[in-house]
Structures are given as structure tokens and as C-alpha cells.
Specification:
The structure is a single chain. By secondary structure, this protein is an alpha/beta fold. It is 38% helix and 16% strand. The protein contains ten helices and eight strands. Helix 9 links the parallel strand 7 and strand 8. It is globular and about 45 Å long. The structure holds 2-phosphoglycolic acid (PGA).
Length: 250
Amino acid sequence: MSAARRPLVAGNWKMHKTGPEAREFCVSLAALVSDAGPVDVAVCPPYTALEASASALAGSPIAVYAQNVHENEKGAHTGDISSAMILATGADGALIGHSERRAEGDTDAQIALRVRNAIDAGLMVVLCCGESLSTRQAGETEAWLTRQIRSALEHVQAGDIAHLVIAYEPIWAIGTGETASPEQAQEACAIVRRVASETIDGEALRVLYGGSVSAANAAELMSQPDVDGALVGGASLEPGPFAAIVAAAR
Ligand code: PGA
């Protein structure tokens, strides 16, 4: 992890926690990470818990990001929500392009537009990318990541750097308990940084690793030079283990 890049640890709750459950979690987490030191911390609740989370974390250093955002500002998009709606809950950012969203049909073109429009609206964006096991076994990880990053950054400009983070999440490591080795995470995050450097200042870009990150493996993963933090799923659902991952990033 480079000293120039402030680490980020974000917890992706996926489809877990109601509003009241989120509030209770956030109160506990805020007590555990009242001073995260030189680490940025965020939680990513479901849409229905954004407002409860943001109000419980007001005045704390912990940010709130949504798990997705629609590319349009308003309109006939049943079941979707806009950047302005997310901001109005008190949340600060959004994940975009998570592999679970891509698997449910979010397209490369939508993801590129979402990144652009979310940044324009003032959201912090955590763009997700990552290869499947078959892509890795075929030796096509680099080509896959290159294509995903170039596509997602199609409408991004150099000046967007302060609003963009990229998370490398190999699909085979998500929710499986199988973590990329520190070497695999380093290699892939370096590829992400190199490809993103075609568009923005790669040296300033924060690249996270995600996929079965836990308190036990976080420090080693985040000690890699191109890994600037973690996007954490399962291990972010309880305040104690998540706070331990934050502590590992210090
Ligand atoms: P996991 O999920 O930590 O449970 O593997 C990570 C993610 O999908 O962001």
C-alpha cells in the first residue's frame, strides 16, 4: 500500500440488514472506529437502509455508499434509484459494476454511464471488476480486466480521480472463503492501475482488493504495494470483525 494513497475499507452488506438493524450496527461500528486514523471507512447498506445508516453515522468518519445506482436522473425505471436519491438519504457514494449486479444483467455500457453520471452528481464511485474462474484458468485475466476497465472508464476524465476508486474482485473469491493469494491480488491490482492510467493518474488511484477478505488475511493483502484497501462482504456484517479489518489497514 503506497503512503501517498489513503487506504479505504468498505463493507458491502449485499441484501442484509433492515433499517433498524443497520442503525444498530452503525452505532456499534462508530464506537469501534471513532478514529480510523489514516484510513477511509465506508459501509454499503441496501437502499432501504441508506438513510438509517447515514443518520446513525452523522458526525462519524464513516461514509455510506449505495450498492448500485441507475444511470438516468429520473424516469420510468421501476425498482431503480438515482444518484440524487442516494445523496438525499445522506449517503456519499455508490458501488458500480459489482459482479453480482453484472450477473443480473447490468451491462458494460450501463456501467460506463453510471460511473459518469454518479461522479457528475457528486457521488464517490467504487467501480468493481474481476474475472471468473474459467477466465483465470484460460490465462485471460489480464485481457478481461483490461477490457472491463477501458469500457467502464469510457466517459471518465483525468479530473475525476478524487471521485473514483476501483475494486478488483475475482468472482471465484467472492463469498467462497477462497481468497486470492497476496501475489495474485497484487498482480491483478497492478494491472487495474496500469490500464486505468490510460485515463487518469494511476499513481493517485486507489485500487482495492475484494473477495473473502477477513480479519485474518486483510493485513497481508493490504500490505501489497498496489492494494490500497479492501471491499469486504461477509466479514463486514458484524461490527467487531469489520473494525478489525479497518485496524489492519492502518
Ligand atoms: P465477500 O464479498 O467478502 O463475502 O467475498 C466481497 C464482495 O462481493 O464485495
